Amino acid sequence: MSRRPIGSRVEINDETNDIAISVKNLHKSFRLPTERSFGLKQAIFNRLRGIKGYKEQKVLKGLNFDIKKGEFVGIVGRNGSGKSTLLKILAGIYYPEKGEITINGNLVPFIELGVGFNPELTGRENVYMNGALLGFSNEEMDKMYDEIWKFAELEQFQDQKLKNYSSGMQVRLAFSIAIRARGDILLLDEVLAVGDAAFQEKCNEYFASLHGSQTVILVTHSMENVKKFCDRAILIEDGKIKDEGDPKKVADEYIKLWKQG
């Protein structure tokens, strides 16, 4: 007999629907071990005594919100509030324990830039390999290759092995590749903090250009970016939505929580 999960994450492509993401009654918990079992015998003994060996941590507690197509929405909250868990569920890394998520369109997550890079290969080789992971053909990568290096401002390092790049150089290259990805919905995790001040300004200009043309979800601690880029913001506290709406109002509420410690 097949078992149907309580929670679900569904991807659709409905051009007549103006909702890009719909989240309904979303719950997520994790089991945290409280003691070590030291083998099967001890695990069985603990079970017979009614000792679970773990405690359940409820991270998300019934979130509900919709994001319209073309909106730039900020999701904010203190460390441990549940926003990173929400981000990973939206990205398909975690599965909801209860509730429903509907993704209307192709979602591209900017979560861990540079995943798939090989330090023993050159920058040139990594560009083509990373492009393949994003679904681009060699011919498509040929057309965008020069622009990738130009945007990253690393043209002179193309044929050096990636292990000789600084971490900042690697992230800049990964970012320059990632923004070529085809997506109706972009999911960003603090990606606006890439590189030095000049490069960050270039990234800011890029994201500002997305307004209205793509749906963007930014998970961040930067209230400056929330006020600067977002049409709407959602504040999560203790796994629940504490505030939602005007970015400045939500940012001010976040700052009050942060000062409370």
Q: Give the amount of beta strand, in percent.
A: 25-35%
Strand order of the largest sheet: 6-7-8-4-9-10
CATH topology of the domain at 8-106 and 216-260: Rossmann fold
Order of helices and strands: EEHEEHEEHHHEHEHEEH
Total strand segments: 10
Flag low-confidence runs.
Answer: none
CATH class of the domain at 8-106 and 216-260: Alpha Beta
Mean pLDDT reading: 87
Description:
With 261 residues, this protein is α/β, with parallel strands linked by helices. It has a domain at 8-106 and 216-260: Rossmann fold. Helix content is 34%, strand content 28%. It has helices spanning 40-48, 83-90, 123-133, 138-152, 167-178, 197-208, 223-229, 247-260; strands at 8-12, 19-33, 54-68, 72-76, 98-104, 107-110, 185-189, 215-219, 232-237, 240-245. Strands 6-7-8-4-9-10 form a six-stranded mixed beta sheet, with helices on both faces. Helix 6 (197-208) links the parallel strand 7 and strand 8 (215-219). Helix 3 crosses helix 4 (138-152), helix 3 (123-133) crosses helix 5 and helix 4 (138-152) crosses helix 5. It is globular, with a radius of gyration of 21 Å. The termini are far apart. 30% of the residues are buried. The mean pLDDT is 87.
